[in-house]
Each structure stands twice: as C-alpha cells, then as structure tokens.
Design brief:
3 domains, 65% helix
Length: 282
Amino acid sequence: MKNECYIVRDLLPSYIDDLCSDETSKFVEQHITLCEQCAQIVNQMRKEFDIQEQNEITANIEQKKPFLKIAHFFQAQTNYTIFLRTTFWIMLLVTIGLFIYSLSVFSNLNRDRDDAQAIEQEKMDIMEKSFVALSSQKNIDEAVLQAVFREYSEHLQHLAIFSTEDIKDFTYLQEGPTNTFPIDYSKAVMVIGENGEISESIIPNDYDIGTVAMANGKWIVQYEYKESYLETVEDAHQIKYYAPSNWTIFQLPILFIIITIFILGNILYQKRITKPVENILD
C-alpha cells in the first residue's frame, strides 16, 4: 500500500492539473478513496493550488493595471481624435460654403457699387453741363439746358434754374450735387421739361432722394428724377450710405477659417503627444 501511496503522491501534481491519462486518473481516484492520508494530501494540494492560482491572477491584474490605464487613455484619445476629425470636416465644409456665399455677396455688392458710382457720376455730369449754360452772369443759354435735358431725358422729369437772390438758404448746396427736398418751382427762373420750357405750375415730388440740387455763387440747378427711375436711385442711395463693409461680408467665413485651423492644430498636437507612447508599445 505504501508503495502505491508513493506512486500516487508522485502523480498528484499532474492529477490536479488534469494532465494524467484517463486510466491514471482512475487509479489515483480509487487510491484516494481508500487512503485517507493521500486524500488529505490531495485536498491540501488543491487548496495550495487555488491560493497560488489566485495570487497569480492578482499579480497579473496588478501588472496589467498600468497597461489598462494606458489602454483607457488611448481609447479616450482615439474617441477625441475621431470627434476632432469629424468636427474638422464639418467646419471645413461650412467654411467653404460660407466663403462661396460671401464671394457671391461681395461680387453682387461690387456690381451695385459700380451702378451707384455711375449714378453719382451722372449727377456731377448733369450739374457741370448745366452750369455751362449759366456761365454768363446775366443770360441763360436755354439751348444748352435743353440739350442737357434731352441727353438725360430717360431719367429726368424736370430741370430747373433758380437765382440765389430768390433763395434764402442755399449754402449747403454749394458742396456739390445734393439730395434735397425740392425748392418751390414758382421761384424758378426757368424750368425745362420734355417739350422744352415749362410755364405752368409744377407740383414737386416730396421725396428728397428723388431731387438733386447744386449751387454756385449766382445760380442753383435742380432736377427731379422720373418716378420710374426712383427705385434705381433709392438702391444707389442705400448702397452708398448703408452697404455692408467688406469686413462685414467676410467676417463669418474668416471666423470659421480660424476655428477650422485651430481644430486642425489640435489634431496634429494630439498625434504628436501620443506618437512616443505608440512607438514604445510597438
């Protein structure tokens, strides 16, 4: 029996680890059923094995904790990088869309500015050509005035001449062509219309932007736009005084460009700080 015990005890480590063949396992099991001493040894070895295995598991867990923290860090970095990249592409598309829209607005605004400038130039041309007819201090060259009116007849309703002696306050008109409320036509020295000089009374338009006047030391030239042309004049007036600046047009896409560049820089920075750790792990 003792010889059998020695054999069984030599086999116990393999038996506990399930490394024995079926026949050897049956032999060991039959023996420990009959041998109380060997059965106690088996129980003791199993307890020690369980404790050792638990210690190994605990040690493995402790060893893995730093790596788990690194894994969590990399997972968080990966999620953050994915978020940044998604945000970057969204912001880039929005920026391109805003920039294209701003370019369209800028192009249309420049075209409107050119139209407004043309109207401003037309004002000056009308005034300069009209004052040629008033170069004489005493006589008015009606033929020149009628020629000026015909040249701009598509836009003009009336062209009137006033003497500064009959008008009290005209100093503000000496600075250049000025939009103003119409001067009373009953005080006019001459009024030119489509059919030449007008003698009958005229009811002026009370829309100040629709009337332009300018004065020199002796004469005041005033003209009214046709009603069909008033919308164009109003648009030009709005562009001249209330049009948005170039900065206002482009400030939103510029802001989005800055944000997009910031996000791109953040992506590159994240890649830079994680690259050394990735190299170590590799």
